[in-house]
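pasting for the record
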Amino acid sequence: MSFAVIGLRGRSSRVRVEVLTNREKLVFQALRDGLTALETAKALGVSINTIKFHRKNLYSKLGVGSRLDAVRRFDAGEEAYSSWHA
């Protein structure tokens, strides 16, 4: 089982990289790129409600409450993010 250590405001936690679905990974990339929910929905060919659903699940799995916190969390542990694209 693969784990990544991710720091958030001086704390660290372990998050299983596998907990994110492929779609959640795409939604995360869109968050990181600064796309809005509507832009993400158009890019992925789904409804805005589908993007909101994926964001909600993504935030829950990461233990964060916002787009900024999600991006900060993974920018602090870049190795976790880069392992998604291996």
